[in-house]
Amino acid sequence: AQSVAQPEDQVNVAEGNPLTVKCTYSVSGNPYLFWYVQYPNRGLQFLLKYITGDNLVKGSYGFEAEFNKSQTSFHLKKPSALVSDSALYFCAVRDIRTGGFKTIFGAGTRLFVKA
Amino acid sequence: DVKVTQSSRYLVKRTGEKVFLECVQDMDHENMFWYRQDPGLGLRLIYFSYDVKMKEKGDIPEGYSVSREKKERFSLILESASTNQTSMYLCASSPGTGLYEQYFGPGTRLTVT
């Protein structure tokens, strides 16, 4: 079964500290993985994706994600958090069962960055 | 920049009303999607469309229908609104298949009383 899990409902971090938002996945075949961010009262914005290639993927706003096949994880990271990073983050995986049209989203992790 | 617009940011309707949510994208994308977002449940796919006049059910299609008469426009219809359809509705579009990211509209917060 295709699925994605975000084990933390909320992550708290102090400004300037590194942040990690966790994601694990379960897929048949090659995983195609995405991270999106939702700022208050706005739609989702694409951050980055892993399709193939380097395990470390760089994205928007200084975010990066590390693909780990053996641990089936795709954790989102940033070396130094900003208060403006406070938002809701969604991990997602392509659902190949429907020809790749569908994307399965995790439940979301709320990130709070404290000044 | 890709732009996905939704007809309303906030909408209040009464139980039993027929509700239309409109979505327009300006990037000639083949695929369009309707999701609902509820706290703790993430995004759940209601319907998607991969071409004009083509539609496929998502994970929670009951109580909803869709229409795609033009490539840029994808409408979600609540045939008879119920209180359990109170939610945030997000429209998205993407080119090609799931290798591509989706572009989202700002959302419509629908309240059914």
Describe the structure.
The complex is a heterodimer of chains A (115) and B (113). Chain A has strands at residues 3-5, 10-14, 19-21, 24-26, 33-38, 44-50, 56-58, 64-68, 73-78, 87-95, 102-105, 109-114. The termini of chain A are far apart. Chain A is globular, with a radius of gyration of 14 Å. In chain A, the strands form three sheets. In chain A, strands 2, 5, 6, 10, 11 and 12 form a six-stranded mixed β-sheet that branches. Chain A has a four-stranded antiparallel β-sheet with strand order 3-9-8-7, with no helix packed on it. Chain A has 115 residues and is an all-beta fold. With 113 residues, chain B is mainly beta. Chain B contains no helices and eleven strands. In chain B, strands 2, 4, 5, 6, 9, 10 and 11 form a seven-stranded mixed β-sheet that branches. The model of chain B has no long low-confidence stretch (mean pLDDT 93). The interface between A and B is medium-sized, with 26 and 25 residues.
What tags apply to this protein structure?
heterodimer; A: 115 residues; mainly beta; six-stranded mixed sheet; four-stranded antiparallel sheet; 12 strands; 0% helix; B: 113 residues; seven-stranded mixed sheet; 57% strand; globular
Give the low-pLDDT segments of chain A.
none
Individual helix count of chain B: 0
Count of DSSP-assigned helices of chain A:
0
Which blocks of ≥5 consecutive residues of chain B have pLDDT under 50? none
| Number of DSSP-assigned strands of chain A | 12
Proportion of residues in β-strands of chain B: over 45%
Q: What is the total tally of β strands of chain B? A: 11
Structural class of chain B: mainly beta
Rough shape of chain A?
Answer: globular
- The dominant shape of chain B is globular
SSE topology string of chain A: EEEEEEEEEEEE
Order of helices and strands of chain B: EEEEEEEEEEE
**How much is the radius of gyration of chain A in Å?**
14 Å
What is the distance, rounded to the nearest whole angstrom, between the alpha carbons of the first and last residues of chain A? 41 Å
Strand percentage of chain A, roughly?
Answer: over 45%
What is the averaged pLDDT score of chain A?
Answer: 92
